[in-house]
Amino acid sequence: MMKQQTPISATSPVPITSTAIAAEAAADQRSVMGGDESAEPTGEVEVRPPASPSAPVIKVAVDTGLEPVTGKIPKMQAHDVRVFYGDKEALKGVSIDIHEDRVTAFIGPSGCGKSTLLRCLNRMNDTIPTARVTGKISLDGEDINGAAMDVVQLRARVGMVFQKPNPFPKSIYENVAYGPRIHGLASGKSELDAMVEKSLRRAGLWDEVKDRLQESGTALSGGQQQRLCIARAIAVDPEVILMDEPCSALDPIATAKIEELIHELRGRYAIAIVTHNMQQAARVSQRTAFFHLGEMVEYGKTKDLFTNPRETRTQDYITGRYG
Length: 323
Ligand SMILES: Nc1ncnc2c1ncn2[C@@H]1O[C@H](COP(=O)(O)OP(=O)(O)OP(=O)(O)O)[C@@H](O)[C@H]1O
Ligand SMILES: [Mg+2]
Description:
Layout: H1 2-5, H2 18-27, E1 44-47, E2 58-61, E3 76-85, E4 88-98, E5 103-107, H3 114-121, E6 131-139, E7 142-143, H4 151-157, E8 158-161, H5 172-182, H6 189-202, H7 206-209, H8 222-235, E9 240-244, H9 252-265, E10 270-274, H10 278-284, E11 287-292, E12 295-301, H11 302-307, H12 312-318
Parallel strand pairs: 5-10, 5-11, 8-9, 9-10
Antiparallel strand pairs: 1-2, 3-4, 3-6, 6-7, 11-12
Helix pairs in contact: 5-6, 5-8, 6-8, 8-9
The structure holds adenosine-5'-triphosphate and magnesium ion (MG).
């Protein structure tokens, strides 16, 4: 795999050292956020963490025109969320807002609680018997753990894409049609066909699979499988998409496609993405939250967090002092 042959790439494993970031930044001339096809006023600026004149340049997506509408509540809000696995407190009172039209990146060393928080947002921790969640999480102001919330509906509204692409062992068509069918979203075959096509188009996969919709989803390449999983999440018309290291099993070309896709999807969904790749966080997100040992140390605009971190721990992490 390219991943193994390329020590520094968009899919570099953690910990990413400052040298790795520098080399990657230098090697990476792609401009996912500022691609020619995009008419959006986005682009990249090159920034350097403060107090580190020799630190590498990190490219950060320009955050334009994305201020929240005044008075509008964030799509999702977590307040003082704690997660215990048995007696162990894995998340120690995290409060964060996830906004519409934005990509929010969760970064931090392994074991700091990024996946745990992500899983709280669509109650995937319910499936872990030892997990106990306290605090409040709301979707459009409604408590997702409240009695009125149907967890199946919640997971349709807040979709999830995992690290390892996990298509069902069914046809490409069925992978995408499954959700709309069980949620009763299509009134007949032609409507379902249209939904499958729309989702596959949005996931940037239609042209590659339109002539082989009856082939197994598992027969696709890793990158295609991941786009299929994104199409599957999109098919039920979610409001939020959670992605847990969606590119870590992919080569750099497949990674670039997913990043481009995230950029395109941003205007339509609130997106939260866990990544170990700081270049990726800087490229795809407008907000970044840095976690350490179960705490959310810092949260802010991606550019600010990478250029002007308020906390020493953040600065140490982004400059590669610890993984
Ligand atoms: N199912 C589980 N049972 C018990 N402990 C768990 C479970 N899942 C996670 N933990 C613990 O909770 C803490 C946070 O784990 P989590 O998976 O959220 O970290 P992470 O930031 O996503 O790490 P990584 O970057 O390695 O994926 C870790 O100490 C982990 O060992
Ligand atoms: Mg994780």
